């Protein structure tokens, strides 16, 4: 471990670190850590924020580990909102000693190598092109408007049987992103480079491009596990730029977003199985003039889409003073606008006790629930199912 490597754990104590002015400004801007000046010139107090992952600022590397010790639990949370079956995938096994990003790279490289060892998947892709000979069908409108009716070249559209399909593009995008991760083993890097060569005929993604979606089918069965992990890899924020003379690269996940997406997907499914439907980021307005917008994380809708219950997910690091008051004010506003008697805040379990707050002269009760993310997936989903039952009991008047 070099002296310029800093390892932090989410929710852990801050560490004093000497930083140059440009390092300080870059880390503060990236927001993967909280950086606070101290009384000593050039010495800063650095602690983990609400992101996990790794960044490199010149020669300095900063790793932020998740509070969840078992990385397999984290992979489950990362993947659940993308694919509900990810938690049944026993091929992704990470150990507690692993660093998250190198471990994900190692697992992905193995799964992708296994998926492509019989050759790359091929499929039909619709291509629009301008050719000197006819292939497929002529795009008459484009030929007349852009080619001025000239006989050649021809604007055509045809189906091409190729390896340049969504599944292979996703594998390539994930491999290229993981190759930027620091700390990869020699074997992992070699497997990722071999995959890159095998996918040489696949379109390289451009910066900012929306990655293609895929649907599991009988034809791409052998790709399923690798594609599920590729979805997780590509859900992370990845960047590479320069700050002065320093090269800045990073690969990180927002823990609050991971938790929010999991709660919305798992709790929404559990509520919907009991009737009605759910919606996420449901638009509301606080005022009569419709000027102040609000978007609660999850609402449960009954007949005629009437809102029956409202939920907000709040991922917080452990804190000695309990749940933040601002969350209660926000939920009170939601309940007031919707005319609901009960509102529900769902936190990642820390050192807080489950609380219920009855708002004076408002007729609103706000329930603060917690989910223990350290539990195995089946037990965690059991917690979610029980929570859905309690929410519905409040909604229909059963205590």
Give a written overview of the molecule:
The chain has 399 residues and is an alpha+beta fold. The chain contains ten helices and 19 strands. It has helices at 21-30, 71-80, 100-116, 140-145, 166-178, 186-198, 224-234, 255-272, 325-338, 377-395; strands spanning 5-9, 15-18, 33-37, 43-48, 51-57, 60-65, 123-131, 137-138, 154-162, 237-243, 246-254, 277-280, 284-285, 293-294, 298-301, 307-314, 342-348, 355-359, 364-371. The strands form five sheets. A six-stranded mixed β-sheet has the order 12-15-16-17-19-18, sandwiched between helices. Strands 1-6-5-11-10 form a five-stranded mixed β-sheet. The protein has a three-stranded antiparallel β-sheet with strand order 2-4-3, with helices on one face. A hairpin with a 5-residue loop joins strand 3 and strand 4 (43-48). The longest helix has 19 residues, at 377-395. Mean pLDDT is 83; it is low at 87-91.
Largest sheet: 6 strands, mixed
What fraction of residues sit in β-strands? 25-35%
Q: Quick one: overall form?
A: globular
With helices defined by DSSP (H or I, 4 residues minimum), what is the helix count? 10
Widest sheet: strand order? Answer: 12-15-16-17-19-18
Query: Which consecutive residue ranges, at least 5 long each, have pLDDT under 50?
Result: 87-91
The total of beta strands comes to 19
Overall radius of gyration: 25 Å
Q: What is the mean pLDDT?
A: 83
Class by alpha and beta content:
alpha+beta
What is the string of helix and strand elements? EEHEEEEHHEEHEHHHEEHEEEEEHEEEH
